[in-house]
Amino acid sequence: MSTIRILLASRNKQKLRELAACLQGLDADLITLDAVPDAPLVEEDGTTFKENAVKKATEIARATGMLTVADDSGLVVDALGEAPGVRSSRYAGENATDRENNEKLLREMSHVPEELRRARFVCAAALASPDGLIGVVEGGCEGSITLEEKGEHGFGYDPLFKKAGYNKTFAELTPDIKNRVSHRFLAMQKAGILIESYLAQRKRQEKEHSS
Q1: Is 72 a catalytic residue?
Q2: pTM for this prediction
Q3: 183-198, pLDDT tens digit by residue?
Q4: Helix or strand or coil: residue 153?
């Protein structure tokens, strides 16, 4: 069986580094959307992370003819009615920067006492072939929102999110530590199992057809 290529459906370079680190043990070549310039731009208009991940994975797999992993992730804050949620990257506007989103979150949380600043990161990851959806999994990471930004690593809301049991924000943790405990790592671990199962099944089918 020839080495299979898996398309990671994102152009976010920081996210791609994290996804690749989570999937590096797979017997497959990982490529990104930058290597597939004709891939469609999928509108993330779902109401849940899973809906968006499934839509991206299935549409891009169908258009490119490649096995595709797509994820959608974001921050859910209890005191804000689970906002910013699926609009995490667009919380302060359609073209908002990470800093603008973080500044808005701090403003919205300015009245919330420290003991009520519970939050969680959520990541949904979907795997699809050109024939359709193979599976979708989810990972979560509980924590709280800090009173100010701290740390230089990571991206998005990392400077404001302190994981339960840790005294540092995600942005203060080194990338290798964050990658072992993050919502994305948990989701991609599960996605890796889906991929391995799919590849094993495909290998069996090719063996049967060749015998």
Answers
A1: yes
A2: 0.89
A3: 988 998 899 889 888 8
A4: coil
